[in-house]
Amino acid sequence: MRSLRLPGSVTRAGFFLTGLLSYTLVLPAAPSLTLAPATVGNRLQQSASVKLGEQAPDDGVQITLRSSDPARLRLSKAEDQPGSESITILVRQGYRESREFWLQALDSSGTVTYSAEAPGYERGTATVTLAPSAIVVSGPFKAPKFVTTTGAAPAKISLFAACLDSSMKIVAEQAVSSTVELTVLNSDRKVGHISEHATIPAGRSAVVLAFQPASEGETTVALGSLQGFAKAADMSSVIASVKKPGLALSDQLVIGQNLQVAGVLSLGEFSPAGGLTVTLTSEDKSKLLLSKSADEVGSGSITLTIPENQTNGRYFLQALGRSGNLTYTASAPGYRSRTAEVTLAPSGVIITPASQGPPDEAHVLRKEAPDAVHRFSVDLAKAKAPEQLVLWTAQLDPVTHRSADITVQPLRAGVSLNVHLTNSTPAVGQLQQELKIPAGSDHAVVEFKALSIGSTEITVETPKDFTTSANAVTVIGYVR
Fold it and tell me: Cβ neighbours of residue 9 under 8 Å, at least 6 residues apart?
């Protein structure tokens, strides 16, 4: 027997005989309608579509979708509309997939099938697994607890619908099939404010509420019981921890005796209306002073005013001692106080050619320091101007007494410094031997005028209340 396959226009099969041969007519298979399985939480919905085995013909394809159990699963053409037992959707010419429709669950366990039928197409079916669902609570970063401050902007708290597994763990966020009215519980309204009611409209999966912090403490935000919804194993509530905003200070500073450094005050949130007054207090005013400006002699305590909606302020720390550690503290109404530490160190005066600058940081960062003496050279015949040398005030390493570019610090306000220089061979070159470094400055410039060929050593004599640096106190000048 032989088979004869005819075009799709043939609508029935038959048999015929010609001589001893017989033939069978075989019709083409009908194109398929394919549906995907899904898992949908109770009172929630999931989008789906129908895939066609071939492109829709010129007049399109009308597909009827039907639930096998409309009491537990319904179908809807729109996510914000209630479902029904069956719906009809049109697949337009040339398309191989329908537009979206929605599977709406009305139960939290078991399975229901749904089907797709269209003239000339093979019927398609799929299974929907019905699962428990919950409305869960999510704070910033979806953490079970978040921290904010009393004056901070409102924090966003999301309430969203989720499909759960058998252990009540969240599987996926899904839209609600009908509007859900929520009651929001706040365990301590003094700590923060949040709306007591919320609504998730049909077709939406979430609503976002604003939590406005008010005072220090902790409060738990949760939801009242909801018919048809279970309690999720996670994210059934969120804890808001409200604290006073903090203050930040320049910390772990090392300051040389009779020197000063600038500090920065930062607020944990913008200053309130009218500004904020912050008080800075030294632990020991006989060793550490505080000042509002670089040219103001410090005191044991100062107040800084941070303008409204600003977060930063500037101040200065002035060292009177040369050793030991001590602290200073910042405090302000409505803010948590902050304490920072300062290390007091000896200070010295060093000298380098202006073209070279202070010693490299390797002098204090490395165990083995580079050459401690700076050198310069002058061509007597070509020199058009004197060579400039610079005296620097610097904090010295408390152990090695070395100095570097990163330890240069200005004199504190109210203290100027007279420095004497020695010149081993005045005949080679001359320079001013008495210099003054003014208060608030970290250097003074001296000019070396070459006179004759040879070399000379120019050395800094250590002033009273200062310490001799282990490096850069001598410069060797060569005149050729």
Answer: none
The domain 347-479 is classified under which CATH number: 1.10.8, 2.60.40, 1.10.3470, 3.40.50? Answer: 2.60.40
Closest CA to 441 of 390, 393, 476: 393
Buried b (16+ CB within 10 A) or exposed e, 91-129: beeeeeebeebbbbbbbbeeebebbbbbeebeebebebe
Phi, psi angle pair for 262, to nearest 5°:
-85, 145
Percent of the chain predicted with pLDDT > 70:
94
Give the predicted TM-score (pTM) of the model.
0.73
Every domain of the chain with CATH number 2.60.40.2030 lies at 134-243
Burial class (CB in 10 A: 0-12, 13-18, 19+), 230: middle
- Which residues make up the CATH 2.60.40.10 domain(s) of the chain? 33-131, 247-345
Q: Is the CATH number of domain 247-345 2.60.40.10?
A: yes
pLDDT at residue 473 greater than cutoff 60: yes
The whole-chain average pLDDT of the chain stands at: 93
Does the structural domain 33-131 have CATH classification 2.60.40.10? Answer: yes
41, two tokens: 């939480």
With residue 363 as reference, give the H or E element that holds it.
helix 362-365
User: Looking at the domain that runs over 134-243, which CATH code has it been given?
Assistant: 2.60.40.2030
Read off the pLDDT of residues 403-451 as tens digits, 9 standing for 90 and up. Answer: 999 999 999 999 999 999 999 999 999 999 999 999 999 999 999 999 9
For the segment 297-330, what is each residue's pLDDT rounded down to a tens digit?
999 999 999 999 999 999 999 999 999 999 999 9
- Per-position b or e across 37-72, b if 16+ CB within 10 A of its CB: ebbbbbbbbbebebebeeebeeeebebebbbebbeb
Residue 410 CA to its chain's centroid (Å)? 36
Q: Which among 339, 317, 330, 341 is positioned nearest to 257, based on CA atoms?
A: 317
